[in-house]
Every structure is written in C-alpha cells, then in structure tokens.
Design a protein that fits this description.
The complex is a heterodimer.
Chain A lengths: L3 H5 L1 H6 L9 H26 L5 H16 L2 H16 L5 H27 L2 H9 L4 H16 L1 H14 L11 H12 L3 H31 L6
Helix pairs in contact in A: 3-6, 3-9, 3-10, 4-6, 5-6, 6-8, 6-9, 7-8, 9-11, 10-11
Chain B lengths: L8 H4 L1 H36 L4 H15 L3 H15 L2 H7 L4 H28 L2 H9 L4 H31 L11 H12 L2 H30 E2 L2 E2 L1
Antiparallel strand pairs in B: 1-2
Helix pairs in contact in B: 2-3, 2-6, 2-8, 2-9, 3-6, 4-6, 6-8, 7-8, 8-10, 9-10
Classes of the chains: A mainly alpha, B mainly alpha.
Chain lengths: 230, 235
Amino acid sequence: MDFTVITDNFTYFMIGRYPQGAFGGVALTLYLALVSCVLALVGGVVLGVASYLPFRPLRWLVRGYTHVMRGVPLLMVIFWMYFLLPLAFKQPVPENWTVIAALTLFTSAYMAHIVRAGIESVPIGQREAALASGLQPWQVMTYVVLPQALRNMIPSFVNELVAVTKDTSLAFIVGVSELTHIATQVNNRELTHPAEIFLFVAAVYFVICFSLTQLSRWLERRLSWGAKIL
Amino acid sequence: MLNYQFDWRVVASGAYAEWLWQGLLLTLQLAALSCVLGFVLGLVVAIVRMSPVAPLRWLAQAYLEFIRNTPLLIQIFFWYFGAYEVLPQTVNDWLNQWPFEFVAAVIALTVYTSAFIAEDIRSGIRAVPREQMEAARSQGMGYLAAMRFVILPQAVRITVPPLIGQFLNATKNSSLAMTIGVAELTFQARQIESVAFKGLEAFTVATLIYLLVSLTITAVVSTYEQHYLRPGGVR
C-alpha cells in the first residue's frame, strides 16, 4: 500500500481544477447532492400534497410517477435526461444540470413518500380542530399539517441526503467531474495504485455519509421526545 | 416538442431485440446470484451483530456502516480495479477462472446487498415481541429451542417481504455493472444507442422491462402480505 498517489493529487480530489478551471471533486459532489436534495424536497412536497387533493386523475398521475421512478434504476433516469433535455431545449445542456435534473426527478418520488408519511404522522385531531375553527382545507394543510409534518420528516430528509450523496457518484457516467469521476481519471493516469485510490475515495464518501447518518439518528432522538429544537 | 424520428422496428426484432433479451437475462442472473449469496452473508453478519461478544458485534456494526455509507459504484470499482492488490494470490487465481468483470460485479453486489439484508433480518427478529421469548422460556424451552420453534418462524414471515424487495433493489443496482463492461440490460441499451443511434427506442424498451420486473415484485410482495401477514400481528 502506497498512499503517495493520494497526497500528490489531494487538492485535485477535493476541488478539481479550481481555481484554474471549473470546480470539481468533493466540492462538486456536495454541491450536486445539496442542490438536488433541496429541489427534490420541493418536488416531494408538491407530489405529497397533490396525492391528498380531491381530484382523482391527479392522484393517479402522482402514483404513476412515483411508481415509475421507484421501479427503474437511477442510471436509466440519467440517460433519459441526457437524451431528452437537449431535444427539449433544442441546445446542449450542461452535464451538471443533466445530473441535477435526473437526481431531482428520481429523488422527488422517494421524497413524496417521506412527505406522505410525515403528513400521516400528524394526529388527525389537529386537522379536525383546525377545520372546526373555521380554516379552509388549504389553510389546514399549509398552516397546521405541513409545518408539523415537515418537522417530523427532518431525520428522513437527512437520510435521503445520504442516499443522494451516494447517488451523485453516477454522475461520472455523463462526464461530470465529481469525486468518482476524478478517482477514475487519476486511476487511468497512474494505473499502479487502484486499491489505494478507491479505498481513499470510499473513505471520503464514508466520512460525509456517516456523519449525516449520525446527525439523522441524533435528530430522531431529539425530535421524538417532543423536544423543541426548532 | 421533440424533433426525433422514432423507429420501433429496430428494437422490436432482430439482433437488437436479441441484445436486450440477453441483457435482461444477465441482469436477472446478477440480481439472483447477489441476492442468494448476499442472503447467506447477510445472515452471518446479522447473527454476529447480535452475538454476546462485544468486539464481534462492533466488527459487524462497522461492516454494516461502511458498506451502507459508501456508493455502490465505488465498491464495484474497488473490486474490479483494486482488489487483486489486496487479495492473496490463490484467491486471485481462483477468481480468474471466470470473466473477471462479471465476478467483480457479483462480489460488489453481494457485499452491498448483504448489508441491507442483515438489517432486514435483524429488524425481523426484533419485530417479534419479547414476551414471546419469555413465554417460550417459561414453558421450559431452552434458548435455542425457543429461537427455533417460536421466534424464528415468526421472524422469517416478517422478513420475507423486505427480502423480496431486496431482489428489486439488486435488479436496479445491477445496472451499475455496465460501468465495468458487464453486458446487462442498461449496457445493451447503451450499445444500441452507440451502434444504431436508436437510443430513445432502446432506453424505452429497457425502462419498460425494468418496470415490468418491479411491478411483478410489488405484486408478489402484496400477495404474500395478504396471505401470510395480517394487520395487528402474525397469523
């Protein structure tokens, strides 16, 4: 084992060619994960709330969408975006946005389930009380149910962030220079230390994801006792 | 909106349809192999994870955390590019009997799946109320007999649906094997795209096949749950 290949390329692993070129590496991995996860949260709330609207075709549409997204590999969705986005916009689309679009569409379906579970976790009495005090159904959702539901789903949201961080590694397939892509690049250049390179990269992902997992467990304990941290 | 000429005949029959079919077979092989092997490995890890010896428990816990908190793609690359550096020569020789990219994909998928299966097994056992164990012991059964005749039969029933779900996950995860050149379904769709420029058709068919697999598995799980699991407990 000879880890000089890591120390020699350390900044390349962390930030890519920045500041000479575009930023990449761990920085890009985190950026892709965060942006997609936040967009997917918005998508998940829209889908989750839509599945409660009293309009049957819309509910079927939402169910169909989540079933399809949860039934196919993420790699498929990435390829779809890779082919469809340029056709739809009639011009080349930057690879970063291809990946963010794919991750957002894919993760929204999982987020929708989390949002639904969050909404279910709010006691029915809350809804009844709100209706009884004269709020409109949409007000009940926006002012009473959703704020509590979102608070309950914070740990699951952090878990989803872990999943998305791992999923960003697939961006390598369309040539986005995040951590996995840089690892394969360095590996192709050096050819002599694949085990060291991939163990190191695994360790980097592990540090990010394990910290988030622990954060999610801590939040779950704090929130489940009804403690007010937010 | 889309300026694209679809030509479904290309993928409906002939060589490209054959490619997709071969790809599906390889996808199912990968998923089945890694699920069966992953179950064996996962069972071992789950047992070690619950053993009374603390260092063993920590070891199993560390394994689970490491596997679950690193991307599958990196694990595939590690086994494909890097494992020969770390493994003993005899193991390398033995593994080289088969096409290496397939072996690497199976190992990576097996290890990855085993971590999730181990957690499923553990939560299955924990889902059986502890009073069951106490009641069995008070009837005069030993620990092993109580496990064998009371706890495990119930735990297995609870664990079956998530285990079938793991097969679906393995099917989806096996798509990553294309990155090291295993000619499974996604790989074949990509091939058709680059050879015949019929990417949209090929990926539509591949997507529909994945959906068919997932719908079948969802149907199996819900049938099982209706027959063997009732709300409010195990029949």
